[in-house]
Amino acid sequence: MKKLAFALVLAFLAFPCFAQEKTTKKEIPDGEIFSSTQSVTINGKTISLATETGTVQLRDENDKPIALFGFTHYRKTNATNRPIVFAFNGGPLSASFWLHFGVLGPKRIEINDPAYTKPAPYKVVNNQYSILDKADLVMIDPVGVGFSKPIGDAKWEDFWGVDQDIRSIGLFIEQFIIRSGKMNAPKYLLGESYGTFRNAGLVKHLQDKGIAMNGVIMVSAVFDLQHLLFGPGDDTAYLIHYPTYAATAWYHNKVKNKGESLEAFLDEVRAFTQNEYAPALLKGDQLSAAERNAVAQKLADYSGLSQDFYLKADLRVTNGEYFQELLRDKGLTVGRLDSRFTGVNEDLLSQNSLTDPQSDAISPPYIAAFKDYLYNDLKVRKDLSYTTTASTRKGFKWDWNHNGNIIWNMQVAVTTLPDMTSAMKRNPDLKILILNGYYDLATVFYGVERSIDHMGLDAELKKNIIMKYYEAGHMMYTHIPSMAKFKKDVDEFIDQTSN
């Protein structure tokens, strides 16, 4: 009897554990997809689109559920084996609604470029510049934004980092193309801003798994984050930013001689930066007073700032200082994402700008109009919250460590350029299209040029990198002429690489 009682006690104690384990498994949610039919008219032809938006259950390498992964998929009805483009924004970590509702999807928001857009009602129109006549489209929202979130034993930090992000998006793309029957279709990555930094690592990651891309489209690119950071003792960022300072001054009529065109003017500025400005900074305090004055005067002439300002700055002006100083006399500050935009200077005594006029001007219309489209046109449940940026989440922190950037157990760089270089050398048919805005002071065009020139590619392989330039900023598609050029450039790229 004692033995029987003891066995019953053990069984009773074990039962709650079994029940708890069973309950936990039930708590791992499945994805939820909302279907609708959308359409877009391009070049006079209307395309019907079978549309899915929502989440799927993302599995790790052992098929264990780790996340609900958010996306929107547009597929041309009654078409097979069309090219497919996987697109995302940057941040980190931003949702993909900027590209989605700005240039890629079937609808777009109209913006009062380059000024402020009035409050609602906003105007949403058919997007004749969409790429949906050329390819099916998947807009990706990484874990932390959109509807994407960890499930099961996974945690936010399992997804928030350079390598973690590449891994999870790589898993999603692989699982998606299997699910949708696109394994043998032409495939493309399209990323904006940090999305280009991600792309450079992701293209190699996928290629190593046997998924080779036909092409990668980089919108407002950066591959070496050192180019954006004005670090102590490092002159790189000052040099990299300078041609965009000059382009900004050219646009705002703050230069004495604008030359024949913006392109001709910038060729002159590039030559000065490389042949005079860089050697002057390299000399440090060994630069003579006469040399310092001469360089400061040229810096002033091209950039629209004063010689005195450059002398006080020791020839080194950060982007925040430039935003604030260029139009200080008019009580204005210029945009970081797009320096064509101007806004009220909130503190004329401040050394650095306090806000970004371009972001202030376009964020409310983009966010409000997209969410209206999401919940009403795409039929998403209205009790699901769509997160536009992970920075609003408590405890958000990005892990900048990347495999290959660590030497002597230290982070010596933040770059994915070696990944892209390796991918191109191992797949000589891989093509890269890079789209640069001249007035982009967030990811500057001269930085991309310097990165490409340091990849160590032979002349033939380097031809696989195609550079295009726009007279607009970071989101060049807010500018209608640039949006039309964006469409033309991307269409030609897909046509050339999908056959």
Automatic annotation (TrEMBL):
GO terms for molecular function: serine-type carboxypeptidase activity. The keyword DNA repair does not apply. Residues 1-19 form the signal peptide. It comes from the Bacteria. It holds the Pfam family Peptidase_S10. Keywords: Carboxypeptidase, Hydrolase, Protease, Signal. GO terms for biological process: proteolysis. InterPro entries: AB_hydrolase_fold, Peptidase_S10. This is Carboxypeptidase C (Cathepsin A). The lineage of its organism: Bacteria, Pseudomonadati, Bacteroidota, Flavobacteriia, Flavobacteriales.
